[in-house]
Structures are given as C-alpha cells and as structure tokens.
Specification:
Rossmann fold; elongated
Length: about 525
C-alpha cells in the first residue's frame, strides 16, 4: 500500500541519519493529520527512537509505556528558537514540527529561522541522528526555502484506496457489532462492502469517523447508516470540491449518437484499467441542447461506473486564494474514488479570459496542473468533457485538444432526420392520433432543431392540447415549430465556426446531419 511505502521511506531516513550522525529534514504532506501522527509514532517506536512533537503552542514527548504524549517544555513563538530546541536534543530522535514552513519561506519568512535550519542541516555538523519531520498540508511544499530545496526529503500520505477503505469500514462495523453482542463476520463484511462507495475519497480518519457517526444513534440500522453516509458525502463533495455524483440508474440514452456508444462499448475494458494504457477520456463538442449532459449519465449506465460531475469553473472563479489547494484536493479525491466517469460540462468556461484569479498567476498554474492530470493520472478516471466554444479558450484550446489530453473528440450536432423521428416518437407516444404521419411531417420541418428544441415543441403543444382537452395534433405541433423556427436557425448559424473546426479535428457522434 502507498501508506506503507511512506513509512518504509521514513524508516530509511531515520536509519541513514543515525548512521551518518547528521540532522535530516523531511516534509511529510497530508490532509489527515491524525493518521500521519500515528504513522510517524509507530515508525519511530519500531526504530527505537525518541519522538517529540513541537508546535508554537507546546512541546511534547511520546511515552511508550503510558502510550501518550507528555509535556516536554513550553512552546515558543520564535521559529528559530524552536529549531534550536530540536537541535539540542541528544541521543537521536524524530522531531515532528507542525505548521512551521510558512515562517521559513523565501518571501516574508523569518531569516533567522532559515539561517538556523541551514546550520543544522550542514554536513559539517555532527549529531546523534535527529530527523526533523515537517508535518504540513500538500500546498506547503512551495514554502521550502529555495536554498534548502534539495536538503528536504519529500514524503506524502495519499488518500486511501478502495481496498484500504473497505478494510477500515470492516474494522469499524465489526467493532460496533461486537458492542451489540453480535460479532457476525458475514454481516460485517456485507455492510463494509456497502459502505465503501460512500467513504471513498475521504481520509482514513474521516472514513472511520463517518462509520462511527452513521451508527451512533442505532447500531443495527445499517440501511439508514448507508443513507446517512451517502448524504454526508454528497454535502462534502458539493461544499468543498464543487462535485456531485449524478444519478445514472435511470439514465435516458440520447438518440442518434451511435458512433459514440460504439466507441464506449469497444473501450469499456480500457476505461477501467489502471496505468498508462488506460482510456483517458473524450471531449464532446457541439451546440447546446444536443444531449451532451444527458450523455454523461448514460455513459455511467453503459460502463457501470459512477458519474462525478466536476464543476471546475466553480473552483477556479469563486474560491479566491484557495484555487490551487482545492484543485489538488479534488484530484486526490477523484483518484481515491476511481474508477469513475468524470463529467466536466462546458469545459471552456473554466479557462476563458477574465477568471477571478487570472491576475495572480493562479490561472496559469492551475491550468498546467489540470493538463498534467489529464495526461498523467494513472487512475481509471475517464474524463467526459463538453464544450461549445473552443475559441473562447484561445491558445489554450489548441493545447487542451492536442493528442494526449483526450483519446478522441466527437462532434455532437443537431439530430439527423431519422434521429428526430425517434426523439419525437418517444415524446409523442400515446399523445397523438396517426402517429406515423405526424412524425414524418414534423421531422421534415425541424431540420435544424436540437433534441432540447424538439422537447420544447412537444411540451408546448401538449400544454395547449390539455387546455382545450384534445389530443396533441399536427396543427398544434406545427404552430410551435413555426414559432421557434427563426430562433432555432439563428442559433444553428452561430456555430458555423465550431462545425468547421470539427470537420478537421472531430469524429461525428452519430449519423451526419443532412442540410
């Protein structure tokens, strides 16, 4: 497991520091402080070293016999003094230092503290083998002083994968059942498996707390516990990461996108693979109303995968000062939740000019991070992105659409005549007399209408029919068609440049629209 690799590397640094009688600096990044501290503690005990925990508020030392931290002096607001206290420890030790890197950064940091750390890490200084573990959130890596960049050994505790989450859930459910006097292992395994999808994407600590909280009021109502966990995850994703898990259980397949469905079916196995050979994703271009959003849910049903809508424009434009942190957390969460279909609607809106943080370099850095993730993420997160305005992204549009970001681009245009007949048939079934004749006439007269336009026509005609208490007639339908025709054609013409782009760069999602 990835977490075991982290502790093994920490053990290696502890041993190396002791062998060479020097002080080593490690940055351990995590979003799970409690788990990180426990991992450091267990590693330090295994290596038979003393463990200290320093913050500006307190200094503590781990007492293995009492299995708790005990006070080991008072805290200090002076970062240089805190580092000197770590330097003075004898006998070799691991010293965890929390939230100090921001005071060491090149710009606006404490020069005395940087000088002190430089002196401590000097190869000319001998020591009993002290390891300084700077415990920080992932974004704090940018605070490492440039002159000491190479001196820091970088470790990270990633989010737990699905297998780890299931193991945590099994442990917690077993503990609850034991409390009730019914340690039924089969039941524990069943509900641990049921809880796992609602816990993926959380830290180990948050997952454990989630199971405990869900069963706190009723230790045997597992169905209610699962509902609670699902709702809790939904709020967490929406509030923190601008994500939503879409319900694809009753997804309606958009009509007329046969080429696209065939591609998904052929690549189904690759979409769920791990590693460099996995299917990365597709970009759907096309005017609004042509079924791109509906397709995202349908893709989840076709592939038997959850669909996570990722509203990257919300992270980019509304969370001032936190965009990069939120993006990194979102990527870690998606990787932990894999396999997924990750739906990014109106992709161009996130990277159009005029973003809220565009003047601080955030736009450029975040764009680069997203492009790297699209290309290099090894987890089976199949990206399904949509766009109706590549030009809005400027040069970025060409960067994003080049080979390597997406496996393929499809153009989703207005439906063909045959597709229009099928759409109208699904909408008008049992609502009109002489259905076949109505379908033929209306399909002929709606050549530039999108699927959304056809639904609007049928809905308006049905409303009028109910008002006068008659079936939906050809006359009522054509009245609505004529009312919308001028606007529909104007909107169609607005996307002529996108269609020209698609001729060279995209495959048609379905049969070509006949003009």
């Amino acid at each position: 497991m990835q977490c075991n690799n982290t502790t093994q590397e920490l053990s290696r640094i502890i041993a190396s520091s002791a062998n060479n009688r020097g002080i080593r600096a490690v940055i351990l990044t995590t979003r799970d402080r409690e788990h990180a501290l426990n991992s450091i503690r267990d590693t330090t005990v295994t290596e038979k070293k003393d463990l200290y925990h320093f913050t500006v508020a307190a200094r503590r030392k781990w007492n293995q016999k009492q299995f708790k931290f005990e006070a080991a002096g008072s805290g200090t607001q002076d970062p240089a003094e805190l580092l000197r206290s770590a330097h003075d420890i004898r006998g070799g030790a691991v010293v965890v230092i929390e939230d100090l890197l921001n005071t060491l950064c090149d710009r606006g940091g404490d020069k005395n503290a940087r000088t002190q750390l430089c002196a401590m890490l000097s190869s000319e200084k001998t020591n009993d083998g002290t390891v300084l573990v700077f415990l920080e959130p992932p974004e704090a890596q940018s605070n490492i002083p440039s002159m000491l960049e190479s001196a820091f050994f970088k470790l990270a505790i990633p989010f737990p994968n699905r297998e780890e989450i299931q193991g945590l859930a099994l442990r917690e459910v077993t503990a609850v059942l034991t409390e009730t006097g019914n340690p039924n292992m089969a039941l524990a395994q069943e509900w641990a498996w049921e809880f796992t999808p609602e816990l993926t994407g959380l830290t180990r600590t948050a997952a454990c707390h989630g199971v405990r909280d869900s069963l706190a009021l009723n230790k045997t109502d597992f169905k209610e516990a699962k509902r609670y966990l699902a709702e809790r995850k939904k709020k967490h994703l929406a509030g923190e990461l601008a994500m939503e898990i879409l319900d694809s259980r009753i997804a309606e397949l958009p009509i007329g996108l046969d080429n696209l469905y065939r591609y998904l079916e052929i690549n189904k196995a690759r979409i769920c693979e791990f590693g460099k050979d996995r299917a990365k994703g597709i970009l759907l271009l096309g005017p609004p109303g042509t079924g791109k959003t509906m397709l995202a849910k349908a893709a989840g049903a076709l592939l038997n995968l959850p669909v996570v809508e990722f509203r990257i424009s919300s992270l980019m434009n509304s969370l001032l000062g936190e965009t990069e942190r939120r993006f990194d957390q979102a990527f870690q969460t998606l990787e932990a939740m894999a396999p997924n279909v990750v739906f990014i609607d109106e992709f161009e809106k996130a990277f159009s000019q005029g973003g809220a943080e565009n003047d601080g370099g955030t736009m450029q850095r975040t764009t680069g991070r997203l492009l790297s993730w699209l290309s290099d993420n090894p987890q089976p997160n199949f990206i399904l992105a949509t766009s109706n305005n590549i030009a809005r992204m400027g040069e970025l549009g060409h960067t994003i659409t080049r080979s390597g970001r997406f496996d393929k681009m499809f153009f989703v245009d207005v439906p063909s005549r045959e597709a229009r007949k099928q759409i109208l048939n699904s909408l008008l079934k049992d609502q009109t007399e002489d259905l076949e004749a109505v379908l033929s006439v209306v399909a002929n007269e709606t050549e530039k209408f999108t699927g959304a336009d056809l639904r609007a026509v049928v809905n308006e005609a049905a409303t009028q029919a109910r008002h006068i208490n008659v079936p939906v007639s050809l006359e009522l339908l054509m009245k609505e068609v004529k009312k919308k025709a001028l606007k529909v054609r104007a909107i169609y013409d607005r996307f002529s440049e996108l269609r020209k782009f698609a001729e060279f760069h995209c495959e048609p999602a379905g049969p070509q629209f006949e003009i």
